[in-house]
Specification:
Blueprint: H1 3-7, E1 10-14, H2 24-40, E2 45-48, H3 62-72, E3 77-80, E4 83-84, H4 90-103, E5 108-113, H5 120-126, H6 136-148, E6 168-172, H7 177-184, E7 188-191, H8 196-209, E8 221-225, E9 227-229, H9 233-253, H10 262-266, H11 272-282, E10 286-288, H12 290-304, E11 308-311, H13 318-330
Parallel strand pairs: 1-2, 1-11, 2-3, 3-5, 4-5, 5-6, 6-7, 7-8, 8-11, 9-10
Helix pairs in contact: 2-3, 4-6, 7-8, 9-11
């Protein structure tokens, strides 16, 4: 085990993916169970996500799900990856995270993103247009101000119980995310498994432009990505198939399907566009034996000088998924945190 790999905290983002033949309630219960397993394996954080109107993804209310995860665990940090701030009023988000921090003090992460609803229908249902993302900078300033007392837009209003509490904020690097994280003095979460040259440039810009704040005195970079580990390379590659097919299907048909078994996907006669998208989704992902993955992660973490790695792997077979996370934790010397 390298010192870089052993010293870097590893965390989990779970999107509450629905499996073929199952329903969304089962996926949400699986997320809570998975959080318990991640805590037992020593992972540092467990995050949940926000997706509206996506049949293959059950996670639509991340602060509610985070509360269930925090209640089912005792030590692991719990948060969101992330709450899409343009979909919400900052006051409501502050109140929700204030409740979480009040109930689970010192364990709550407030991961934030700037994406708007996935389709026109979802955006209309949320009461938000495409332009909502352009208001993110002001929304972020207001949200942080509800906690630290600097909010001045609504001087007669107090965000209770958020006022004075300190859930840890993180910014997802979508669009101008890295630039905004630096300007607001916040930790950055950025995709880190493929597109490495662009990643390293973005991280360098973030560190160079970072302005210390009351939330973070120094830059903090969380790399995120898919990592699949198994006893042999082919088994590890198979772990990637279910998510890659869902991605390919969504980009060719406009519908994000539940995760399917790798065997049924292999038996499909894919169309040309489906095959092209599928091959692209399979490319550049980190997978292999524990030895192969350890070397690749050591190299990536060394070049990026990342402070943390957030694992985002999903697959159909729960047992194989948990084995992958167990092997990943083990290659760090028996604990991921």
């Amino acid at each position: 085990m390298s010192s870089v790999l052993g010293d870097t905290p590893f965390s989990v983002l779970d999107r509450s993916r629905v499996r073929e033949g199952e329903d969304a309630p089962r996926a949400l219960r699986d997320t809570v169970d998975f959080a318990r397993e991640a805590e037992a394996l020593g992972y540092h954080r467990f995050w949940v996500s926000e997706h509206h109107g996506v049949p293959g993804v059950a996670g639509s209310a991340p602060t509610v799900l985070a509360a269930a995860v925090a209640a089912a665990t005792s030590r692991i940090r719990v948060g969101t990856g992330g709450v899409m701030l343009p979909n919400h009023r900052p006051l409501v988000v502050a109140e929700q995270f204030g409740v979480l921090e009040a109930l689970f003090p010192g364990r709550i992460d407030m991961g934030l993103g700037r994406s708007v609803g996935f389709t026109d229908g979802v955006r209309k249902a949320l009461g938000r247009g495409r332009e909502a993302g352009r208001e993110f900078d002001g929304q972020l300033t207001e949200l942080l101000g509800w906690f630290d007392g600097t909010q001045r837009t609504y001087p007669q209003v107090r965000a209770l119980p958020a006022e004075g509490l300190r859930p840890a904020p993180f910014l997802l690097a979508v669009g101008r995310g890295a630039e905004l994280a630096a300007a607001h003095g916040l930790p950055l979460v950025i995709g880190g498994v493929h597109g490495e040259d662009a990643l390293l440039r973005a991280v360098d810009r973030y560190r160079g432009a970072f302005r210390p704040s009351s939330w973070a005195a120094e830059p903090y970079v969380v790399l995120s990505g898919t990592v699949a580990v198994a006893a042999d390379g082919e088994r590890a590659r198979r772990l990637l198939v279910s998510e890659a097919w869902s991605t390919a299907y969504s980009r060719t048909h406009g519908v994000f399907p539940p995760l399917a078994p790798a065997e049924s996907i292999a038996a499909r006669a894919m169309t040309g566009p489906e095959r092209e998208r599928f091959d692209a989704a399979m490319t550049g992902q980190l997978h292999g034996t524990p030895e192969d993955v350890a070397k690749a992660l050591e190299s990536l973490l060394t070049r990026s000088a990342a402070d943390e790695f957030l694992v985002t792997t999903s697959t159909y077979d729960r047992a194989e998924l948990l084995d992958s996370y167990r092997l990943l934790a083990g290659m760090r010397g028996g604990g991921a945190g």
